UniProtKB/TrEMBL annotation:
InterPro entries: Phytase-like_dom (IPR027372). It comes from the Bacteria. Keywords: Signal. It holds the Pfam family Big_9. PROSITE patterns: PROKAR_LIPOPROTEIN (PS51257). This is Phytase-like domain-containing protein.
């Protein structure tokens, strides 16, 4: 399923020339780009907005990753993937813009209108990267998922401020073309009775969070509360969504109506999963290529009884597999996290390559360029099942005490905070083998080779991942948090603070496509002419 960049070829009045130099992240490579032609022109003293499709036309379809300074003006990053050129006062004539491009990556920026503006701060609607899934049978479309809606940390660590309390989580169908991810359809999520689902805290789940609006007024819990994070689109047109509150696995029909729900509170999912830390539930979801097995992954370790300190420091996460035909067949496997006590990493997505092999995103929450975003190839074929069907010698399974017990102690409590190497050794001594993992892509290292200061795809939360061809092409999405970073003022009525990327723009939903066969990534230089009249 190639992610083709369907570049429009615009009729030109100004030529776009190619510089005869190129730079490479590995060796000297003087490949020549063949740009198209496009009329980029503006009036004297008037700024020119260059949208992604026009920039791609100017670069011959090659993805811009960095920009030089024009000789007679300035260039700045704009909204929705655009660039803004401003000519110097009094200048007329033809200016030249040096653009660094790469064949190894493509980007598609969401271009939606804002959800709402509050206190002068835009709340973005382009937030469909909490989970992504391929649209079956279509090569240039994907489904994207929102989470529970706009929310930020409040006046205490356990308070969450919901500026739009009635936000209804939804699935969006996105068309990827010409550098833009265009929403073609939205599918609001609804309960089994047709009532809208909302992002307020689920009444049954104990998250430890208190929800308020911008006035500080407490918000109630809801029987329709859901925090979607993982997405699967099935061949019959339906969806599965994983949630952070329960965590739940929820089956929706093609129009977003709930069909069934697997829950740790009624025994349809292992009860120990309800011990997830607040906002650290089932962060990713995928389905085996034959469509018979769902695989979800918890964001961090469980807060099992007796655990000293925070589960976020325990170097484990759980992969949970569920048989689609018989959901009672559930298995759990341990995924080793890379020293979260020091690195603050957690899991944000999983995508299946086979019934036993996956790609997993492991990341921190820092923006580029000094961040950690890595994609691992993971194999559970040799891993030990630590779920209800576990057969570990000498261990016992007790759902109400934290699941599988080793010498009477839950797994996370046994391991405790520490390094992943120590955790693996402790588990091996107990007869438990964790999933095998190898580095597939150091995403942040790749992005730094393309843009040293983090101007190119500098998002902090990488949460969506799919591959159409067994891992050669990686389609990656970010969770923009609706463009919000937190509170600018905690005095009611509270004021919001926008989340700003390293390139100076407010965070926005954006899809990144990486061709791993073109790595290490090479860059080339293209000169774009801009006529100022």
């Amino acid at each position: 399923m190639p992610m083709a960049n369907k570049t429009r070829w615009w009729v030109a009045t100004v030529a776009v020339s190619t510089a005869l130099t190129a730079c490479s992240s590995s060796t000297s490579d003087f490949r020549v780009a063949h740009p198209g032609k496009v009329d980029l022109s503006t009036k004297a003293g008037t700024a020119l907005t260059i949208t992604p499709d026009r920039m791609l036309a100017a670069t011959g379809g090659l993805t811009p990753v960095a920009f030089g300074k024009p000789a007679h003006g300035t260039i700045a990053y704009g909204a929705n993937g655009s660039m803004t050129y401003t000519p110097d006062a009094g200048f007329t004539g033809t200016d030249e813009l040096s653009v660094t491009v790469s064949r190894a990556v493509k980007t598609y920026a969401e271009n939606q209108l804002p959800l709402v503006t509050m206190g002068g701060v835009t709340i973005k609607a382009s937030a469909h990267g909490s989970g992504i899934a391929a649209v079956p049978g279509v090569s240039d479309e994907i489904y994207g998922l929102t989470d529970r809606g706009p929310n930020v940390v409040g006046r205490s660590p356990n308070e969450r401020v919901f500026p739009v309390p009635d936000f209804q989580p939804h699935i969006a169908k996105l068309k990827l073309a010409d550098g833009v991810a265009t929403v073609e359809r939205t599918i609001p999520l609804r309960g089994p009775d047709g009532s809208p689902l909302v992002g307020l805290v689920d009444r049954q789940a104990n998250t430890g969070e208190s929800a308020v609006d911008l006035n500080g007024t407490p918000l109630p819990t809801s029987d329709y509360g859901v925090d979607p994070e993982g997405l699967v689109a099935t061949l019959d047109g339906n969806f599965w969504v994983s949630d952070e509150y329960g965590p739940y696995l929820i089956h929706f029909d093609a129009n977003g109506k709930e069909l069934e729900r697997l829950s740790p509170f009624d025994g349809t999912l292992p009860n120990e999963l309800s011990l997830r830390s607040p906002n650290r539930g089932m962060e990713g979801l995928t389905i085996s290529p034959d469509g018979t097995m769902l695989a979800g992954i918890m964001q961090s370790a469980l807060q099992t009884p007796g655990l000293q300190g925070s589960a976020k420091s325990v170097p484990l996460a759980r992969i949970v597999t569920v048989n689609v035909v018989d959901p009672q067949i559930v298995h759990e496997y341990l995924y080793p996290l890379a020293n979260p006590q020091e690195t603050d990493v957690s899991v944000s997505e999983i995508t299946a390559l086979s019934a036993t092999t996956f790609l997993v995103v492991e990341r921190d929450s820092k923006p580029a360029p000094n961040a950690s975003k890595k994609i691992y190839a993971v194999d559970i074929a040799g891993a030990t099942d630590v779920g209800p069907r576990s057969t570990v010698p000498g261990a016992s399974y007790q759902a109400d005490r934290g699941g599988l017990l080793v010498n009477g102690v839950p797994i996370e409590t046994t391991v405790g905070a520490g390094s992943d190497a120590d955790a693996v050794a402790k588990l091996r001594a107990a007869g438990i083998t964790v999933a095998a993992k190898t580095l597939k892509l150091d995403l942040e290292a790749l992005l730094r080779t393309l843009s040293a200061h983090g101007d190119f795809y500098g998002h902090d939360k990488i949460e969506g991942l799919l591959t159409p061809d067994g891992g050669k092409t990686l389609v990656i999405a970010n969770d923009s948090d609706f463009g919000l970073a937190g509170l600018a003022s905690a005095t009611p009525p509270m004021r919001l603070q926008p989340k700003v990327l390293p390139n100076g723009t407010q965070d926005n939903g954006e899809i990144l496509v990486v061709d791993t066969t073109a790595l290490p990534a090479k860059t080339e230089s293209v000169t774009v002419a801009i006529k100022v009249r």
